[in-house]
Amino acid sequence: MPPLQRSESRSFQDIDFTLKKQFDKDKFRPYQREIIQAALDGNDVFVQAATSFGKSLCFQLPAVIDRGITIVVSPLLSLMMNQVEALRAANVDAHTLNGNTTPEEREYIYRDLATGHPRARLLYVTPELCAGKFFRERLELVDEQKELARIAIDEAHCISEWGHDFRKDFKRLSWFRESFPDVPIMCLTATANAQVRQDVLSTLGLDKTPERLKTFTTTAHRPNLHLEVRFTSDQADDRYDDFVSWLKGVYARRGAGDRRAEIDARHERVESVPGIIYTIRREECEMLAHALQHHGIGARPFHAKLPKEAKEATLAKWIANKPGYDIIVATTAFGMGIDKDNVRFVVHWRLPKSFEGYYQEAGRAGRDGNASLCFLYYSREDMATARLRLERDVPKPKDEEGIKNKKARLESFDRLVAYCEDTGSCRHATICKYFGEEKVPECDYTCDWHKDPAGLKRRMAQGLASEEYIGTQMAQGMFDGVGSEYGD
Ligand SMILES: Nc1ncnc2c1ncn2[C@@H]1O[C@H](COP(=O)(O)OP(=O)(O)OP(=O)(O)O)[C@@H](O)[C@H]1O
Among 221, 349, 320, 327, which Cα is nearest to 271's? Predict the structure, then answer.
């Protein structure tokens, strides 16, 4: 039989059948079918959709159906591991090449690629790897055999210096289109504004063939997330008491009457209310987790300096809803790519660095579609500290890219501050507007403004330190020394 040409994909296979057989799902979510079909038809595809939309399936299902291997570029190790594990459990031949790959696995993958007809359906790689000569040569071999099915770029906003997570190695992904002009590319992101979108398309060279490009942008709106800002100040120092009394209230409601009976019938624990608290400093992450444990709350710290085994054990027990592991207290970026569906709350203990980062992290909540609470403690002291830190992070950008990225980061941060200090609009509407949406989303009393606009105004007036006070403190250099131990 003559070899298939690239245009002759196996897309005639029934995608509904594959959805059920390989992914054990009954039906597509809105737009998934259209996106998958566009990919199978050989188009370049740009997908922007809310967190938990189900973007991964949009490249995984075509990868199973199509001839050849799909290369998935992702910046997140946890996401790669998580997805590869899930795919293997579903009998899909998937692998990952990253810093944690064992030498044996690495050798196996390179041998597989060297055949030109790899058995693997999906290979998850880092953008750094894609820049390497050895890997590129292997892909060229595969492409010569017309076995390079597709390049999927996850978290594609990292390509743009206008994006909050810009990574230089992502820019070099332009190599794919230059080297394999007829291999389709799919980009996926949850957080991109119009400028970032345009930048991604032009960097990758996808804008040169608009007739090949299908763009799907769905709303960023997550109607099941209850969004709230809680105002505080250094003087009040009331985050801890506020959080504990809120959580104990949740436990008390779950432990009473009919709710209790339902919980018992499901053999659940009253305290099994999975959540994430995002902190900024490692020291605070540790202290907070220990204080909560001391109060009988199942909280565990999670940050980069903990031993790998401890982190893996914590994560596994949290995912499995084990007693003592109800809440992860983490430094930023925890949870990206970790697919736990029943996270009932996400708390931002301190102001995050960017608008996108905030919404990505909040988006870890309620992936099962059930109501979940996301609240952020906002103080003007934090705001002043964080802004100074951002200014200092990139003191003197050396090139055009650096200047653009610094500008974008400061702008994103300022928009987040404006969001926190806004007492006159729906939180969901502000978020959707930030991501360039014109249509105002339905908010069924799922934000603090819709619930009680007058109360929101009052709480802000009472809760925050005054702007004059912050101004004086800044002038005296009070916020200058903070921030040496930030990061994950
Ligand atoms: N058609 C479907 N039916 C049922 N579940 C689905 C369907 N599509 C995806 N899912 C599930 O939805 C969850 C979220 O999917 P996925 O991890 O791909 O989200 P995402 O869009 O990448 O979100 P994020 O940007 O937050 O990482 C996963 O558990 C996935 O198995």
Answer: 327
